[in-house]
Amino acid sequence: MTSTRRAVGLRILPGSMTVLAICAGLTSIKFALDGQPHVAMALIGAAAILDGLDGRVARFLDASSRMGEEIDSLADAVNFGVAPAVVVYVSLLSTSPAGWIVVLLYAVCIVLRLARFNALLDDASLPAYTREFFVGMPAPAGAISVIGPLAAKMQFGEGWWSSEWFVCAWLVACSGLVVSRIPMRKMHAVSVPPNLAAVLLAVLAMVAAAAFLFPYILILVLIVAYLCTIPFSVRSQRWVAAHPEAWDEAPKQRRATRRAIRRAQPNRRSMARLGLRKPSGRSMARLGLRKPDQGQ
């Protein structure tokens, strides 16, 4: 009987974490209305951490369920759509006529992004490699990006980064990234070589220390770092899509395949670096040239 009760208690742990995340997201709105944006931002961060943990805890405890997935999706809409939008509106855009419009735009885009994510989960026709990429910016990253201007204001004071025109433009840009088709690599799909494990742990320790000492700077650094990874994600996704033979390979094997292909085509890399390319048949005809095997 005791073991059964313990098993039931463990199975409701992921759902409890999701409910706590919803409470944190909604409470952030309350603190924003009370004029305490720093507490509101901390609660949004706490909701993001709980959102990242509840799914992993559910898989670890084998407590995944359809109801839990639906609750998690609704929690994301509240925590990363409604809550950050209202916090930014109350703190930066309450006097802007267009402020409420862009806030509504962002919240609606988050809901649309989550609906598309859930639909793609049920699409069994997609290749396996697509599970390694998000389609568009994920909701937690969107929430952190949206509060970037508020973090800049808390760190540096008033400036162009807190002006109404810039905040509105920033929210529109974040909304576009959220509903875009740009592939963005999932963090759990990134493999770390064993010899870099110690370095990664040291970096995580530095990030944890920065979260307490320089939280606003950390938010800005995370936003810039994430945006800088987008071109690499696009390049990686295009390469995998063009090489079906690597779809079922592990990331480590895929990197080895890419290195082997680059080594097998050294002349192509050198010509690309010099801005040269192999002349086409039309260009050769235009110059009056012919191939060696062609007759007179």
TrEMBL record:
<dbReference type="InterPro" id="IPR000462">
    <property type="entry name" value="CDP-OH_P_trans"/>
</dbReference>
<keyword id="KW-1208">Phospholipid metabolism</keyword>
<dbReference type="Pfam" id="PF01066">
    <property type="entry name" value="CDP-OH_P_transf"/>
</dbReference>
<keyword id="KW-0443">Lipid metabolism</keyword>
<dbReference type="GO" id="GO:0008654">
    <property type="term" value="P:phospholipid biosynthetic process"/>
</dbReference>
<feature type="transmembrane region" description="Helical">
    <location>
        <begin position="196"/>
        <end position="227"/>
    </location>
</feature>
<keyword id="KW-0472">Membrane</keyword>
<dbReference type="GO" id="GO:0003882">
    <property type="term" value="F:CDP-diacylglycerol-serine O-phosphatidyltransferase activity"/>
</dbReference>
<dbReference type="InterPro" id="IPR050324">
    <property type="entry name" value="CDP-alcohol_PTase-I"/>
</dbReference>
<dbReference type="GO" id="GO:0016020">
    <property type="term" value="C:membrane"/>
</dbReference>
<keyword id="KW-0594">Phospholipid biosynthesis</keyword>
<feature type="region of interest" description="Disordered">
    <location>
        <begin position="266"/>
        <end position="296"/>
    </location>
</feature>
<dbReference type="InterPro" id="IPR043130">
    <property type="entry name" value="CDP-OH_PTrfase_TM_dom"/>
</dbReference>
<keyword id="KW-1133">Transmembrane helix</keyword>
<dbReference type="InterPro" id="IPR048254">
    <property type="entry name" value="CDP_ALCOHOL_P_TRANSF_CS"/>
</dbReference>
<feature type="transmembrane region" description="Helical">
    <location>
        <begin position="12"/>
        <end position="33"/>
    </location>
</feature>
<feature type="transmembrane region" description="Helical">
    <location>
        <begin position="133"/>
        <end position="152"/>
    </location>
</feature>
<comment type="similarity">
    <text>Belongs to the CDP-alcohol phosphatidyltransferase class-I family.</text>
</comment>
<dbReference type="GO" id="GO:0012505">
    <property type="term" value="C:endomembrane system"/>
</dbReference>
<feature type="transmembrane region" description="Helical">
    <location>
        <begin position="164"/>
        <end position="184"/>
    </location>
</feature>
<keyword id="KW-0812">Transmembrane</keyword>
<keyword id="KW-0444">Lipid biosynthesis</keyword>
<keyword id="KW-0808">Transferase</keyword>
<protein>
    <recommendedName>
        <fullName>CDP-diacylglycerol--serine O-phosphatidyltransferase</fullName>
        <ecNumber>2.7.8.8</ecNumber>
    </recommendedName>
</protein>
<dbReference type="InterPro" id="IPR004533">
    <property type="entry name" value="CDP-diaglyc--ser_O-PTrfase"/>
</dbReference>
<feature type="transmembrane region" description="Helical">
    <location>
        <begin position="98"/>
        <end position="121"/>
    </location>
</feature>
